Amino acid sequence: MEKQTLSQFLLDEQRLRGIHDDEFVLLLNDIATACKSISRAVCKGALNGVMGSLECENIQGETQKQLDVITNDIFIEVNQVAGYYAGMASEEMDAPYEIPVNLRKSGKYLLLFDPLDGSSNVNVNISVGTIFSILRCPEGVENPKVKDYLQSGITQVCSGYALYGSSTMLVITAGFGVNGFTLDNDVGEFYLTHLNMRVPEDTHEFAINMSNQKSWEAPVKNYIEDCLKGTDGPRGKQFNMRWVASMVAEVHRILIRGGIFMYPVDSKLKDKGGKLRLMYEANPMSFIIEQAGGLSSSGRQRIVNIKPSGLHQRVPVIMGSKNEVEMMCSYY
Ligand code: AHM
Ligand code: MG
Question: Which ipTM was obtained for this model?
Answer without folding.
Answer: 0.97
